[in-house]
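To: structure subgroup
Subject: Chain for Friday's discussion

All,

I'm putting the inputs and outputs inline so they're searchable in the archive.
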Amino acid sequence: MPGVTGEAARAKTELRARFRLATGAYVSALDVARDGSLGVVGLGDGRALGFDLRTGEELLSVNAHDGAVLGVSIAPDGQRFATSGQDPAAKIWARGGALERELPGGGGWVERVAWAPAGGRVATAAGKRVRLWTADGAPIVETEPLASTVTALAWRRDGAVLAAACYGGVHLLPVGAGDETRHLAWKGSLISLAWSPDARVVACGSQDASVHFWRLASGMDSQMTGYPFKPKALAWDADSKLLATSGDAVVTVWDFRGKGPEGSRPLRLEGHKGLCTCLAFSPRKGVLASGAEDTSVLLWEPRRGERPIRFAFLEDEVTALGWHPEHHTLVGADAAGTVCGWEIG
């Protein structure tokens, strides 16, 4: 079987494709609506394309940015989505594709965009600054310049705090009453960010090929080292117990139950031949999806074993993965512009 090791070749069944789209351009971003009705991908040629998550039918296509789309985020009610890209403004779009608002970035590219879980705010990052906007595009606040370019944004599950990663650590920016701005300091360049669903831990991949994390209640931090490559993909399970990390062809999973991962051996999920590029836990079950440079997509149940349970292939390097909120569909996309929806039985 091309693209995977013998362990993956013994996976139970190949995933059945419900739909397959050919967009014609590198897929740089993907998001799935909370109600499962809509998926939106951002493309390297500047387009944003929306599709029905059940049938794969194309619902909209807009020329979103002059350069590549860098970020896509769908509003919690599924009626709007936001994009950012290689031009000076993020944009808010109606579900049907009409442009509603532009969110100026201050001169350069707007690299990051993230809609708050409660729906009332949108965060953008351009260069060293983070900006908050209302859902209607009115400015709320702009931060002072951080130490370096913001590399990742992630909202706390309740939408009351926004985390921004850059060189020198993570900044926790409150947008509601009762929380204070915090700086989780670390002398290094952070490249990925994942906030645990229970809001107790913030984890980051680092430029020095390590994973750094903070326990927010105590402020204590720890580091996992030994990765051959930079861990650009991180994913928590729905129970905030398992943290899956990239940084190798092997997917490394750390267990945060009990006293946590310090001093313990992680699970090593071996199946891909190429470097793991994407990770996504199902929101409903303890199933992890991983994608790799070798075009393979593998499903795992880390609590039950270290062998993949199902597999699929795309046409090129896997660039994005996303789950339907009810678990029955996994969406994957690749560098050749393929978007595929697999049925999970």
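Points worth raising on Friday:
The first strand starts at residue 13 and ends at 14.
The chain has one domain: 6-343.

D.
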